[in-house]
Amino acid sequence: MRNLVSMAIFEIKDAFRGKWFYIYFVIFFGLMGGFLWSGITASQVLGFTGLTRVLIGYIEITIVILPLFILISASRSVVMERELFILEYLVSFPVSITQYYWGKFIGRFIVIVIPIYTAFLFSVIWGMVKHFPVPWHVYGVYTGLVAALSLCFLGISYFISSLSQRQDTAIFTAFFVWFFFVVLLDVGILGLFLKFGISLNLVLAMALANPLELFRIAAFSLFDVKLAVIGPIAWTLLGKVGNNGLILISYIYPILMGLFIGFVGLIYFKNNDFI
Fold this sequence. Notes:
mainly alpha
């Protein structure tokens, strides 16, 4: 356990030395600050104002940008250290491959959520100062959804990094995975349904299998319980599993998917030439 914690701390410190973290921080924190400063809290869309209106805009950005940043940055993690012979140096210490792998995984997860949770805290403080009602329930559920989505794509990233032999291969694969999930959002799935006439159950299964689609539907269900504004697939899913069931699936499935894929990456990493 001590070595695991040490590797996590090493990963966090290493991330703080990289330019990508500060770019990542500025983008997510800056977006929240930009929304608050621009006066969007005073605008009204579909009856939403204040911090609720800000969170709607923030969610729309998070759906696209967060997975891309995770995949591009984390998919280079293991393969980069292998190329630069840092991995060979680290495993010379009394640290097992499992401790090295999961230590980096935990450390990277902490680094990923820091900017988003800091932005949340800033928006809460802003809302209190401006005397806006703070939607605590929305913040609580959305915080969990962000963590689940981050774990999912982090597991995919480490799987890619474990299988790749070069950084450029890992980055290309990560971008392709991101593009694949983005294409299969609500509009893309509905297009396949209309084009090929596939069954409704298969369409719903495709939607449930896409962690981005789950995140999107669950996040917007916090504001519009009927999901009337984001498409027929979301509305149909809500009728099948209910609002609470949808949020529960959006927690459990991405977490299990990320941990499982990350574990498969560890098995491959341990059973192959990792130096």
